[in-house]
Amino acid sequence: MASSSLHLPLSLLCYLAVVSRVVADDPVPFAAKWSDLSFGPDGPWPAVEVTLGIDQTIALYPGREFQTFLLTSDYCDGNDTCPGSKAHLYNKAQAQVDSTGSAAQIQWAPGPDYMVGLKMAGENAESWIDNIDLGGLTVPNASLALLSKSYTAYPDGTWYPLSVGCLGVGAPKTVNQTFTITDGPAINASLIPGWLHAQNEIPSNSFAMHIGSVNPTMPGSLYFGGYDQNRIIGDIITETDDYTKAISLSDISIRVVDGSSPWAFESKSGLLAANNASISSGGIKVSVDGCSPYLTLPKSTCDAIAEHLPVKYNKNLGLYIWQEDDPKYSQIVSSASTLDFTFLAGSNTQHVNISVPFRHLNLTLTEPLVDNDQQYFPCYTGSSGGYTLGRAFLQDAFVGANWDSKTWWLAQAPGPNIPSAEVIALTEDDTEVKASTNDWKESWSGSVGVPPMSFPMGSLAQFSFTRCKQPIRQKKQLLTVSFKWKALTPEDVAGSQTVSSPNATNSATSSPSSPSSSSSSSGLSTGAAAGIGIGVGVAALVAIAALAFFFFPSP
Ligand SMILES: *[C@@H]1O[C@H](CO)[C@@H](O)[C@H](O)[C@H]1NC(C)=O
Ligand SMILES: *[C@@H]1O[C@H](CO)[C@@H](O)[C@H](O)[C@H]1NC(C)=O
Ligand SMILES: *[C@@H]1O[C@H](CO)[C@@H](O)[C@H](O)[C@H]1NC(C)=O
Ligand SMILES: *[C@@H]1O[C@H](CO)[C@@H](O)[C@H](O)[C@H]1NC(C)=O
Ligand SMILES: *[C@@H]1O[C@H](CO)[C@@H](O)[C@H](O)[C@H]1NC(C)=O
Ligand SMILES: *[C@@H]1O[C@H](CO)[C@@H](O)[C@H](O)[C@H]1NC(C)=O
Ligand SMILES: *[C@@H]1O[C@H](CO)[C@@H](O)[C@H](O)[C@H]1NC(C)=O
Ligand SMILES: *[C@@H]1O[C@H](CO)[C@@H](O)[C@H](O)[C@H]1NC(C)=O
């Protein structure tokens, strides 16, 4: 209710902002728009929202190099309950570009394996071009790949349908992909940041993202031509060329950051190479991929981590199911403890840690992967050759690339207590991004005051910000204590001190419902919190709304 009454003044502000931009005309970083919904039978995950061709709004996970991969309306064959329908499917018949002509004649057919770390099966994709509207800026003739008969293949051999495509975020030194066609001249298909930079809309051919998370609610951040400095904390890993190129992971550890330990230790390292003599002290090579869901690692590594968790291995899916009736489950997934990934950076002498709180590793499997929803731990053993850190990891990592300077970065991202965006432009020559001075632990534990002007997540803040491109600053997100982790007390962890191992019979069947420590997830209801947040800002905006009514007849 409140939000609809605020749209009018915001569109006025947007209008003014756009006008002032036309006058100034300096290239500025562009923020992609995030969907209000969440997606995936292995998430839930955040996704960005773009409009293709003639008015086809589609949600996509960001993170593909080169082409944007779309699921077509053929994918579900008119089946409304097909998992791909929620994010919306692409209909070739509603292309804005040349749907019968040259686009259909591009000879290059990319394989279905557009993500690393999860095996794909089925038919090749079809190359295509169409316009992509990012919410204020349109990229004509964007390079696309259409998936109509491709599936994910799990360890037991079952193929499952995809639910969301993947947005192209550019590629090293590339503005256009040039495709030959059967008849006539080659076709140029644009990559998003390359085209935007070539048109002088953004300061460089670059992207930067932190996907955020659905639980706890943390809005995503995706910029072209710049980055939000507040999404980077601590040391930065700097690499060259492709961002999905494999880099060195030297260890994985479990660590208690605050409070009592739910384990018999405060930290446990050496988990990457445990029980596997063929993994040397140098570790393994892993790719980072926003199109891929899991932490795809050697089975020996997943087992070594799982040994300390109340989980059960699901052989068919190659994933680990949390035993929700084990009291250790809710202790661990709400606690101030993390899975730490230690990378060997640049010079191969510098170690950089990226911590993923267990709070982020309590994910949900839904249909079609399972019949009834199950909480799972996203270590995945069905590697198709490449070990991969996907969205489960990217909830806590900043990743970005300057394609002009062929440089990319990986760093720790903050927890849910995030200050307003501090957007910094990347120029063509930049080979560095700068970290904020924010404290990572605070971002997960800090007490959060209600900011002076705040909006409910995902609606107005993003609306105003993305439609208006740069000029209007992102409003501080509304946060409540419920998003924090919980530093466990000695009482919380009293009782069963050891975690039942994966193949032990479950001794905790006597406690049917999960223990009360999970009640920290209540807190202020969104409605109540939104009321507090909007209260202050509303008076001012209502005044503008009243003004706007005089100037613009309502539609
Ligand atoms: C539609 O898709 C769902 C999920 O993939 C499947 O269970 C169902 O059988 C399909 N229905 C038809 C009519 O194909
Ligand atoms: C898009 O591609 C078509 C076909 O190649 C071409 O005719 C058209 O000029 C292109 N549009 C732009 C804006 O580059
Ligand atoms: C990219 O392709 C478009 C047509 O789709 C063309 O207008 C533009 O000049 C090309 N840019 C480069 C750098 O090749
Ligand atoms: C495609 O881009 C190249 C430069 O990369 C340019 O020479 C050519 O004219 C473009 N073709 C079209 C059809 O725009
Ligand atoms: C041990 O590590 C090697 C090298 O990564 C891998 O190929 C193998 O599958 C691992 N063994 C197990 C049991 O995971
Ligand atoms: C685990 O995640 C589910 C789904 O988001 C949530 O309902 C549940 O409260 C979480 N469990 C704990 C103990 O936080
Ligand atoms: C990385 O994490 C491990 C395990 O928590 C710790 O032993 C190590 O000191 C950390 N390294 C750095 C550079 O912070
Ligand atoms: C599983 O059970 C076997 C035999 O009971 C035991 O040797 C092994 O250590 C157990 N595995 C784990 C991870 O506890």
Automatic annotation (TrEMBL):
The chain crosses the membrane at residues 528-552. Residues 494-522 are annotated as: Disordered. Keywords: Membrane, Signal, Transmembrane, Transmembrane helix. Residues 46-411 form the Peptidase A1 domain. Residues 500-522 have a biased composition (Low complexity). Gene3D superfamilies: Acid Proteases (2.40.70.10). Residues 1-24 form the signal peptide. PROSITE patterns: PEPTIDASE_A1 (PS51767). SUPFAM superfamilies: Acid proteases (SSF50630). This is Peptidase A1 domain-containing protein. It comes from Xylaria hypoxylon.
